Amino acid sequence: MVTLHMLKHFGVPLEGLELKIENRGAPPRGGGEVLLRVPNINSTLKAVNWIDEGMVKRIRGVTFSTNVSPQIENRILYAARGLFNKFIPDVHIFTDHRAGLSGGLSAGYGVSVVAETTTGCLISADATVSYPNVDEMSEQSKKPELMSPEDLGEQVASMLLEEVAQGGVVDSTHQSLLFMLCALCPPDVSKVRVGQLTPHAIESLRNIKEFLDVKFIIKPDPNSNTVTLKCVGAGVKNLARKIS
């Protein structure tokens, strides 16, 4: 819902990009299966000047449940939408109930929500709750208290509102990928704006400097509490050739 669409800003065609969830899987035993298709890039990515996140115009999302009652999804949905509707009316959250083989090997539920802005930015937040493996629980151990569907819905809605409030063209979980794509661009200037840098993003900047020798110029904006980053790409090209 978010990551694949982010690639189009760097010249990756959406045709051929596909992420299909064959089976859902929740911890601890998993069992999920995902099909990912990514087309080859002819030459290089495209440098970007991506600094305007715009205003939120709609919120979309999906709840999922695996091997539990499908009513759980409705409880998550109503809790999340109840918080979102205080700020924006255009909110649609869909449901995806799985059971049997398509539901994986463990029971659980979760929700993923995305805010779309007037400039085409997508800001996301998600969370899951999973049941422990009954076989590994001893008779003396207490049954763990799981977060209720209503609390999960409110938590994820609050997480998304916090991501939007921080500003930036991507959410905190996509900062590292954004910086990597900028570093892989042709030797031209890319300029992006994000919210508060996460520890993972900071570590990614260090790794990019070490492996690609690409330095970012970081300029905080005290007025909006955002950070603007500029770099000159390493000019990495796709050297793959078809085998005849």
Automatic annotation (TrEMBL):
Coiled coil: none annotated. PROSITE patterns: RTC. It is found in: Nucleus, Nucleolus. Its main location: nucleus. GO terms for biological process: endonucleolytic cleavage of tricistronic rRNA transcript (SSU-rRNA, 5.8S rRNA, LSU-rRNA). Residues 52-164 form the RNA 3'-terminal phosphate cyclase insert domain. It comes from the Eukaryota. Keywords: Nucleus, Ribosome biogenesis. Residues 2-217 form the RNA 3'-terminal phosphate cyclase domain. GO terms for cellular component: nucleolus. One of its GO terms (molecular function) is RNA endonuclease activity. Belongs to the RNA 3'-terminal cyclase family. Type 2 subfamily. This is RNA 3'-terminal phosphate cyclase-like protein. It comes from Aegilops tauschii subsp. strangulata (Goatgrass).
